[in-house]
Amino acid sequence: MAWNEPGGNSNNQDPWGGRGGDRKGPPDLDEAFRKLQESLNSMFGGKKRGSEGRGDKSGGLGLVAIVLGVLAAIWLYSAIYVLDEQEQAVVLRFGKYYETVGPGLNIYFPPVDRKFVENVTRERAYSKQGQMLTEDENIIEVPLTVQYRISNLQDFVLNVDEPEVSLQHATESALRHVVGSTEMDQVLTEGRETLASQVHERLQRFLDTYRAGITVTQVNVQNAQAPREVQEAFDDVIRAREDEQRERNQAEAYANGVIPEARGQAQRILEDANGYREEVVSRAQGEADRFSKLLAEYQKAPEVTRERLYLETMQEVFGNTSKVLVAGKSGQSNLLYLPLDKMIESRGGSATAGGAPAPAAGSEVGTRSVNDPQQKDLRSRERR
């Protein structure tokens, strides 16, 4: 027999917790809600229903107060916010810029106000890589990284829609402009620093024109390279340039070693020439002075000066020859002879050097007679 049929077994239990004839109906939700309301009224100073006969009016007011209190707590929780040392917030009131607040405890009034919080000191980065066309119509791949930060939060929030997307577009435009006006050799080798500096300058000018509130701190152009299909040929070209630079450095080092030495030798030759010039000039001036003094002496005593000059000349002439002049007694002729021993020695040395035998001691060697013209000339001078 079913549990809800009349005369059922008293031991059967109904689903509402009753047994047999003591069955109860489902719980009264109104009663449960009433008890909850009375509990809340007692907490907030209200009175219970029933014996006082207040009815439902006071209970409704208490519930409204509770709801309003909960809503006020939720609103206050959402309106108060805290910014750390790196953050700033822009507050809009009725959609119009109201203020920019800094770190600390702040409050705004939603939904009248709206706030935008951003970290204004953190360095942000954006990377870009793509194929570019250079000035000499070569295609290269140029990877670069742009580091930036927010410098003006008001401009960043209000002036440009999606300012970081605008930064990416401006970066690509600046990079293509600079690479398109630069030759491939400069981009691949030593011109990367110049390329990065030019991209940085042009990109910042674009952002200032947009009033995006972004400051570019650094642009790094990484190792640019040729497309993968022709990379080996470009590597050969780069190695050839490196060899050229190495040979040039070696040549410059050699020139730096040779040129100072050549300059030293040239300076030494100039100093020798100057010394020789001074020597010749001084000797000429001395000879001129000696001749002037000798002329004065000759004018005073011509005979004596002439004789002295003759003797000095003869002494100088015969002092450099192997001939010996022997003067006899007065009235006897002078005899001029040759020193045979010195002549034999000199001829022996020359013959040995030239490979021909030396002549005999008595061959073709003789004395000049007293009738020799030189002897006559000497005697005539002595008579004078």
How would you describe the overall organization of this protein?
The chain is an alpha+beta fold and 384 residues long. It is built from 10 helices and 10 strands. β6 (124-133) and β7 form a beta hairpin.
Main sheet specs: 3 strands, antiparallel
β-strand percent reads 15-25%
Number of strands: 10
CATH C-level of the domain at 124-225: Alpha Beta
Q: What descriptive keywords fit this protein?
A:
three-stranded antiparallel beta sheet, 10 helices, 384 residues, Membrane_HflK_N, alpha+beta, disordered N terminus, rod-shaped, membrane, transmembrane, protease, Tetrahydropterin Synthase, Chain A, 52% helix, 10 strands
Topology, please?
Layout (H helix, E strand, L loop, with lengths): L28 H15 L13 H23 E4 L3 E7 L2 E6 L2 E4 L5 E7 L4 E10 L5 E12 L2 H6 L4 H18 L3 H5 L3 H19 L3 E8 L9 H70 L1 H17 L5 E3 L8 E3 L2 H15 L18 H11 L1
Could you provide a short overview of the structure?
It is built from ten helices and ten strands.
